[in-house]
Write a structure and sequence with these properties.
By secondary structure, this protein is α+β, with helices and mostly antiparallel strands. The protein has two domains: 32 residues, no CATH class; 145 residues, no CATH class. Strand 4 and strand 5 form a beta hairpin. Helix 3 packs across helix 5.
């Protein structure tokens, strides 16, 4: 027989044992963040910024934002990004280099692991953590370095990024059919690591 002590104070119809609020796993918490995209412009080009619980993704990167080409790279590599984001450090170190090709977007990306200094231990030793490096192959020259947190965010936002890319393609077709002579030099830049 359950008592009021067994029920969630916020959601009284739920037993504490089954309530994400009481278990600390509800959306928007440290263990289960809510990721979102914020559309905008960067240096005159359309861009998106990835947010975690409505704020920056982490304290070392105040703006994790990028334009269309980098979004295309991330979407093309999302299955590896998802695996990397939820792997242990040991599993991340064992990731094998790979090449992903998206013929529709004329995109070829080499995926590899690079070690990145994460923090300095109290002993003075630098602790390196594996990061995922996405390097486009010629003629492209873009690269993106992302750690566990950004991988998890990109995996969670895959559908939103695909929708945003479709909207960019429609905007581009509309601009072309309207007879505009727009010159786009380069997509927006994201932070290099994350």
């Amino acid at each position: 027989m359950d008592t009021n002590r067994d029920r969630c104070p916020k959601n009284p119809s739920m037993l504490r044992a089954y309530c994400s609020h009481c278990q600390g796993t509800e959306r928007g918490t440290l263990d289960n963040p809510r990721y979102s995209l914020k559309e905008g412009w960067f240096n005159g080009f359309p861009a998106v910024e990835v947010l975690k619980n409505g704020a920056s993704i982490h304290m070392w990167d105040s703006h994790f934002r990028f334009g269309q080409r980098k979004a295309e790279i991330l979407v093309a590599c999302v299955s590896t990004i998802r695996k990397f984001g939820w792997a242990t450090d040991g599993e991340r170190l064992a990731f094998k280099s790979d090449v992903v090709e998206d013929k529709r977007r004329r995109l070829c990306v080499r995926i590899s692991i690079e070690m990145h200094p994460e923090f300095e231990h109290s002993s003075g030793e630098i602790i390196d953590r594996p990061w995922l490096r996405l390097q486009t192959l010629p003629p492209d020259t873009e690269h993106i370095g992302i750690g566990m947190m950004k991988c998890r965010a990109i995996a969670a936002l895959e559908d939103d990024l695909k929708r945003w890319l479709r909207a960019q393609e429609l905007r581009s077709k509309h601009t072309q059919s309207a007879g505009c002579r727009c010159i786009h030099l380069k997509p927006a830049l994201s932070s290099a690591h994350g």
